[in-house]
Specification:
about 625 residues; alpha/beta; Spore Coat Polysaccharide Biosynthesis Protein SpsA, Chain A; eight-stranded mixed beta sheet; 16 helices; about 25% strand; elongated
């Protein structure tokens, strides 16, 4: 469960503060442990009383403010900030960040006290999976100016893209500004250069050293600018989310807008749910293996549209895909929506389908138009769908999340009951999000063991029928395709006799919740009994780092080394990924019992009698009576 601290420096009119606190109490906190921290800088006793009453109802820390000579002034024309006041607020915000660091919070939601939030805001921002993200709102900073967002692209408050060596006319600047504004009016998550006032900050960002204190050689006005520059220098990315814009009660006269805003939140929620429904339907169609029931159901949704809009060639491709058990992955690139007069919702978007049929890769760049309607039970469903091929292919960005990554364990199993399977699987299931078991023709109770151990864990068990381990590269490719079809962020590939040391559950989040590396390599230790591993020139895997954990990037190919044995557990493309090494160690227990070593020796002699795929010397050394063993220490 995520532990979230919601914090704010508070010096506010009582009527505005009451609406702010009410919106905090109405936030959807399902699955979250939420606490509050406010710096009480109020001069109005009614405002202080509002905070005290809130603290009686919610777990809240109240911090005292500071006395300063200058005072904070605001009226219907705007707010007046002196340099002294700005850096006082910066100190308040840093006190809240320090409180979160000291008390182990997973994130801080830092917000201004004149906002009224949509109830879904908090859970939505936590689910974005990024280090720093602000929910966008629009404000008329001065009565004679148009509404503007509280996020920007660069510098003090620049709203248009421009290269350093680029000279732009005022017309071109205005055009680019309008492009930026238009994008922010569409529900989505966008990278920006500056943000503030309604910001979720991850623990990774907190520990990296983000803060609001002034950077001495930077003249920008406002603590948020210094926060943003410091965050980017620390290697963090800034994002703006536009799904649930709050209401900014910038002036007392704007309190009259609160009731209308609250009334519109249900409709706003409906619009966001419509976008998610379309995403889910597209995923059910494309992100699956055609050998599964889920894949067939997805094709039923889209079969008519494929035939009508993409022509006979695409329909034939879909049929070929089913016949060849191909993998298809769908990447939803963008979606937008509008309300229909009859109460429905129209959603337009772009997506990319890629995969292979009969080993031949393909890619479709598509546009979609979907219509959703409420069928009487309160849930929206897709009732109409049109697809069309795009004239120009899309360029897909690689997605690297720094928070909220899902890890799938992919494991190949054959006749592992009664060996190490139960222990290995139980340990791995304690730190992964989902498990895929590929059973290669087991004739014992391996499948039943997996089902029992994983009964409380999201999992899929695929039974392939007759064993194909004699042609390992095809088997591993099938395993890879099935793992990719589950759409994880990372894939951990372990065999049924491999187990990480005990600290893996505490370490895995730091390994995957980062955007610098796409593969993590570990050392594998070949255990020769319950306590010791083998260490000699022929058995030195533990001296080499090999990838066991790989980010499931869209562009990775499906080709393996063409070898009947020892083809590796990853496609060849994994070798080009930027890889980090971890000091966490992996135990290989498959050699730990004499009967297992005898069985493996006989299997290698049967499957590779000429040692074409391995080392003859190593094969023969399996049965060596007195190998050099080193005792393991946790």
């Amino acid at each position: 469960m995520h532990k979230i601290l919601i914090g704010a420096p508070v010096r506010q009119e009582p009527t505005i503060l009451r609406e702010f606190l009410r919106s905090l109490s109405e936030l959807d906190k399902t699955g979250l442990q939420v606490e509050f921290a406010f710096v009480d800088d109020n001069v109005d006793e009614d405002s202080r009383e509002h905070l005290r009453r809130f603290a009686e109802a919610e777990p809240t820390t109240l911090m005292p403010g500071e006395e300063l000579a200058s005072d904070y002034a605001k009226d219907e024309f705007g707010h007046v900030w002196s340099d002294e006041l700005i850096w006082k607020v910066a100190r308040y915000k840093d006190r809240i960040l320090d409180h979160a660091r000291a008390h182990g919070h997973d994130a801080v939601f830092l917000i201004d006290s004149d906002l009224v939030l949509h109830p879904a805001t908090l859970r939505h921002l936590v689910g974005c999976g990024v280090d720093v993200v602000s929910e966008v709102f629009w404000t008329r900073w001065y009565p004679y100016l148009p509404d503007r967002p509280q996020v920007w692209l660069r510098d003090q408050y620049t709203m248009h893209e421009q290269r350093r060596d680029e000279q732009l006319s005022q017309d071109e600047i205005d055009r680019r500004k309008q492009e930026f504004f238009k994008k922010l009016l569409q529900p989505g998550l966008y990278e920006v250069g500056g943000l503030g006032a309604c910001t979720l900050i991850s623990r990774r960002a907190l520990l990296a050293g983000v803060g609001f204190q002034p950077i001495s050689n930077l003249s920008f006005v406002g603590e948020d600018r210094h926060f943003c520059v410091r965050a980017v220098v620390l290697g963090l990315k800034l994002h703006a989310d536009t799904h649930y814009p709050p209401l900014h009660v910038y002036r007392l006269s704007e309190l009259s807008r609160v009731d209308g805003f609250r009334a519109s939140t249900a409709q706003q929620q409906r619009r966001v749910e419509a976008l998610q429904t379309v995403r889910d339907v597209v995923a059910a169609w494309g992100n699956t293996h055609y050998d599964s029931l889920r894949g067939d159901e997805g094709l039923q949704w889209f079969g008519a549209a494929l035939r009508a809009d993409l022509g006979a060639s695409a329909a034939k491709r879909a049929a070929d895909a089913r016949a060849s058990r191909a993998v298809v992955r769908s990447h939803v690139v963008s979606l937008s929506q509008r309300d229909l007069p009859d109460g429905g919702v129209a959603v337009a978007g772009t997506l990319v389908r890629e995969g292979s049929t009969g080993g031949v890769p393909f890619r479709d760049d598509l546009g979609l138009i979907a219509t959703l309607r409420d069928e009487g039970d309160g849930h929206q469903r897709v009732t109409e769908l049109q697809l069309h091929r795009l004239a120009e292919p899309l360029v897909l960005p690689a997605t690297r999340k720094t928070h909220g990554n899902r890890v799938l364990l992919s494991m190949l199993v054959k006749n592992e009951a009664g060996r190490h399977l139960e222990k290995v699987l139980s340990h791995a299931a304690s730190y992964v999000d989902e498990v895929l078991i590929v059973d290669d023709g087991s004739t014992d109770d391996s499948v039943a063991v997996c089902a029992r151990v994983l009964r409380d864990v999201p999992h899929t068990i695929v039974q392939l029928g007759d064993s194909t381990f004699h042609d390992e590269h095809r088997l591993r490719r099938r395993q890879w395709e099935l793992a990719r079809s589950r759409c994880p962020d990372w894939i951990l590939c372990l065999d049924a006799d491999e187990q990480f040391e005990e600290r893996m559950p505490q370490a895995i989040r730091a390994l995957v919740d980062q955007d610098q590396y796409d593969a993590i390599a570990f050392r594998l230790y070949d255990f020769w009994d319950e306590r010791c591993f083998r260490d000699d020139p022929l058995w030195s895997a533990h001296r080499t780092f090999r990838p066991f954990l790989v980010r499931a990037l869209p562009g990775l190919g499906d080709e393996f080394r063409q070898s009947a044995q020892h083809c590796g557990r990853w496609p060849l493309d994994v070798g080009r990924l930027r890889t980090a090494t971890s000091e966490l160690r992996l135990k290989h227990l498959g050699w730990a019992r004499p009967e297992d070593r005898q069985a493996k020796y006989e299997r290698y002699r049967l499957l590779d009698p000429q040692a074409r795929h391995g080392s003859a010397a190593q094969y023969e050394s399996i049965l060596e009576p007195n190998p050099n063993l080193v005792c393991w220490q946790e």
